[in-house]
Amino acid sequence: MSGWADERGGEGDGRIYVGNLPTDVREKDLEDLFYKYGRIREIELKNRHGLVPFAFVRFEDPRDAEDAIYGRNGYDYGQCRLRVEFPRTYGGRGGWPRGGRNGPPTRRSDFRVLVSGMFLSN
């Protein structure tokens, strides 16, 4: 697993947050969106009347959760652009997220950097 997930706190359990869902979303819809990333252990759909629905999806393998975030964050689903990220963990004094992150999560772009030819020396 990458260090990115470990630094965010609590993501080692394979759980992701899925926000900005359409009001008529069903658990089956979420299963269809995420099954290709790995075996899903649990889907918790929070669909309270009058509020934008959100969900938590838990994968058996935490690496699958990372892949799902990479593949579905910013994905256009109907008229909605999905927000997929690790759940925020609040704790300690003041209720701030662990790790000192006080702002919104960073957005990923469509651009990637490929690094090759690196050598480790002793």
Number of strands: 6
Q: From the alpha carbons, calculate the radius of gyration and give it in angstroms.
A: 16 Å
Report low-confidence residues grouped into runs of 5 or more: 1-10, 92-103
Shape descriptor reads elongated
Beta-strand content estimate: 15-25%
Largest sheet data: 4 strands, antiparallel
Element order, helices and strands? HEHEEHEEE
- Spatial separation of the terminal alpha carbons: 24 Å
Q: Class by helix and strand content?
A: alpha+beta
Strand ordering within the main sheet: 2-3-1-6
Oligomer: single chain
Number of helices: 3
Q: What's the helical proportion of residues?
A: 10-25%
- Average pLDDT figure: 80
Can you walk me through this structure?
This is Serine and arginine rich splicing factor 9. With 122 residues, the protein is an alpha+beta fold. It contains three helices and six strands, in the order αβαββαβββ. The protein has helices at residues 3-8, 27-34, 62-72, and strands at residues 15-19, 40-46, 54-59, 76-77, 80-81, 83-85. The strands form two sheets. Strands 2-3-1-6 form a four-stranded antiparallel β-sheet, with helices on one face. The protein has a two-stranded antiparallel sheet with strand order 4-5. A hairpin with a 7-residue loop joins strand 2 and strand 3 (54-59). The longest helix has 11 residues, at 62-72. The radius of gyration is 16 Å and the shape is elongated.
